[in-house]
Write a structure and sequence with these properties.
The protein is globular. The strands form three sheets. Strands 5-6-7-2-13-12 form a six-stranded mixed β-sheet. The protein has a six-stranded mixed β-sheet with strand order 8-15-14-11-9-10, sandwiched between helices. By secondary structure, the protein is α+β, with helices and mostly antiparallel strands. β5, α4 and β6 form a beta-alpha-beta unit. It starts with a strand and ends with a helix.
Length: 506
């Protein structure tokens, strides 16, 4: 069955160039010592995916374009789907350490996906015995999926649907009907669909305007003091210039309980506020080291999921965004967290007053050809460094399950998230949590962060400064009191994972 990309999904496709490949994903580090099924070989992984392809809605779908770009592309089940093309096996070069690991991951990340095939790849990475802090014998599983197919929330749901909760693999229910590829639509059929879509748009626009009116009235009742003011100017940093085709990645691991204890020290603050504040501190330290710290605070774009709890995760991107000053102009970590919390609170008030997805839905009424041209012109202007940045970086927080997950019997030790960067926005910081761990990853251009070890040190130092300033000498006692609630969180996570699996199999 043909499924059309939304305007938001298509926008990620239109931004895809050799310098700005638009895929998202993660590297999971798996411990085979827990597996009763033997080594994690290419054949074993291929068989595992083959059995679970029906739980991966994007796995066998490829894009088909409407003639002359008159409408957004469609997904079609690929009659030439070849699973072995999408799963590859690589070895980490000597000395098998973190530096080589990051370099290998960045090289894989730098290569664009083939837009004529289903838009995903998985890499099995061997030779990780010298990764400090990781059990010997671990294997990496790196996934790449185009951003036009999934967002962070749907990617996390898909990962949970594929994983098991014990080393013994849970039997997977066979699909109700055998998979059959779609017949390739003709140009005439696609143009007829475009004509039908155009006929429906006036009615859809009227419905959207009717939904906008209450939001406008609610916004008018909000006092000016409650609304966030636009940050001007947005400072220009090394991350706000054209990017090259070369990437750099890295990550740091912390205890989630420590983050939860920190947020309790500022009334009303959230884990996300603490994450944004730590990132602000890390960027302050990094730019100070480079003698490039601007006086004005950096502005981060933070995606907001508008996905409903019963939504099908095959429905692409369902996100909006808020823009938050992350306090890089403030040296004191407590002052920074207070300011970040105030910034996120006012941004959320604006989002709640308007509706998180309302403005995004207006993009569906921009003609596809105009949207495509606008995205590419914006990219070219940014590449020529002729436009001021709308924001400095992207920071995305996708909470994960608080129970251990297993893949083919191998326990997931940790994950490293990564995302796309574009001209004029050369830094994305994916944040996630998993089984009591809190991870801060980053993806950037190699010219912008030529020394990733320094950036990782700045993340560690910012975390330590924030923890010391907020928790002080009572840190361990405060963290211990937080940890008592974990059993309840684990039970809730188990229920959520079971629900996701049942929805996927249905």
């Amino acid at each position: 069955m043909l499924q059309q990309l939304s305007a938001l999904d298509a926008s990620f496709l239109y931004q895809d160039t050799p310098h700005t490949p638009m895929h998202v994903g993660a590297i999971a580090l798996l411990d085979p010592s827990t597996s009763p099924y033997g080594p994690l070989t290419l054949e074993a992984v291929t068989a595992y995916f083959d059995e679970r392809l029906h739980l991966m809605p994007t796995a066998r779908r490829r894009l088909v374009n409407v003639p002359f770009g008159m409408d957004h592309p469609y997904w079609v089940e690929d009659e030439n789907f070849d699973l072995e093309y999408h799963i590859r096996e690589v070895g980490l070069p000597e000395p098998h350490d973190w530096r080589q690991f990051y370099t290998l991951g960045a090289r894989i990340l730098s290569r664009p996906l083939d837009l004529t095939r289903p838009l995903w790849e998985t890499y099995i990475i061997h030779g990780l015995d010298n990764l400090e802090g990781i059990p010997k014998g671990c294997v990496g599983l790196m996934t790449k999926t185009h951003h036009c197919a999934i967002d962070g929330a749907s990617g996390m749901e898909m990962a949970m649907a594929l994983a098991d909760l014990t080393p013994e693999m849970t039997p997977v229910n066979a699909p109700k009907e055998p998979w059959r590829p779609d017949p390739m639509p003709t140009d005439t059929e696609l143009l007829l669909r475009t004509w039908g879509n155009n006929l429906q748009r006036p009615t859809q626009m009227a419905e959207l305007l009717a939904q906008t009116l209450p939001a406008t009235q609610a916004l008018s009742r909000t006092s000016r003091a409650e609304l966030p003011s636009a940050q001007t100017p947005v400072p220009v940093t090394r991350f706000n210039r054209p990017v090259t085709a070369h990437r750099v990645i890295g990550f740091e691991r912390f205890r989630l309980d420590e983050v939860r204890a920190m947020k309790n020290e500022v009334e009303g603050a959230t884990v996300n506020d603490v994450a944004l504040s730590i990132c602000g501190g890390a960027l302050r330290l990094f730019l100070e080291e480079k003698l490039e710290l601007p006086e004005d605070p950096l502005l981060a774009m933070a995606p907001i999921s508008v996905r409903k709890s019963n939504a099908d995760y095959s429905m692409g991107n369902q996100v909006s965004a808020m823009f938050v000053g992350i306090g890089t102009n403030l040296q004191d970590p407590v002052e920074r967290l207070v300011k970040v919390h105030a910034n996120t609170s006012t941004a959320k008030q604006m989002t709640n007053a308007i509706g998180a997805d309302l403005l995004t839905r207006y993009g569906d009424f921009v003609p596809a050809a105009v949207s495509n041209m606008a995205q590419r012109l914006t990219s070219e202007f940014s590449r020529a460094n002729q436009s001021a940045p709308a924001f400095n970086c992207s920071i995305t927080n996708v909470p994960g399950p608080q129970v251990p997950l297993y893949t083919m019997g191998c326990r997931t030790i940790t994950t490293i998230g990564y995302g796309p960067i574009v001209h004029n926005m050369g830094l994305i910081i994916p944040i996630s949590s998993y089984f009591g761990e809190f991870t801060i990853s980053f993806t950037s251009c190699r010219e912008m962060i030529p020394d990733p070890d320094l950036f990782m040190r700045c993340i560690r130092d910012s975390f330590a400064e924030t923890k010391d300033a907020l928790l002080g000498s009572d840190a361990e006692a405060k963290v211990a009191s937080i940890a008592k609630n974990y059993e309840h969180l684990a039970e809730a996570a188990l229920a959520e994972i079971r629900a996701v699996r049942e929805k996927a199999e249905a």
